[in-house]
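S1.2 Input.
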Amino acid sequence: MQPRPFAQVDVFTATPYLGNPLAVVLDGTGLTTAQMQAFTDWTNLSEATFILPPTHPQADYAVRIFCPGRELPFAGHPTLGSCHAWLQAGGVPKTQEVVQECGVGLVKIQRNGGRLAFAAPPLRRGGPLDEADVQLIAKGLGVARSDILHHAWCNNGPQWRGVMLGSAKQVLALTPDPQVLQGLDVGVVGAHERGDAQFEVRAFFPGNNSLAEDPVTGSLNAALAQWLMGAGLAPEHYIASQGTALGRSGRVHLDRDASGQVWVGGDSVTCISGSVVL
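S1.3 Output.
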């Protein structure tokens, strides 16, 4: 057991405690997978990360990402939060972009002032959902089938099923049934009529007859942007709001560059810094 530098970062917000929190152990050397998993479970947060020396010559650092019960090859808010903590701890990237090494390989991260943005990984599966899935999702969300205007697979690791409703107001009014949605990861999006955000997003993880909702979800917003922009349902630059239904105020900045690469950006703020004994 030894003290290790630690930070708890709020991601996709510039205001502390209104985004999605992340535990970051800034020196994970020597820890076993079991020790990392045990600490993650203890934090009671959606994810914890462990910074390690890179093994790839182009990478600035390596990170292992855990959620309760398992390790993840990639996740959005842990990517931005880990990079924020690494830079604040004195990390110096080799080039203008930060290069993170993780389970899916190398992930590029751009810096725009205090805001960071990661390059969205390619979709592993896209295209429309099966009609049976759409009807099941409509039932689980408590809406009519006709209320789902568009739908698509948004699988970029997590097997998101994305559906678009007619408005942000309808998205915010949802009270899903976890028993009906059991085993499905569902992302819901609807357009705002006004305000700084063009879309409202909610992310549901039903399981064990209970419903978990993520405050702000990088992987889902990445996949939604690739779908919506590709289908002409969203502009090449927009802001998504997420977490409103949970009392948060997450803001995700989505941009598609000239090469077609989608970038997923947001502010991060450190709420706790110090050391943790592991």
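S1.4 Remarks. The longest helix spans residues 76-88.
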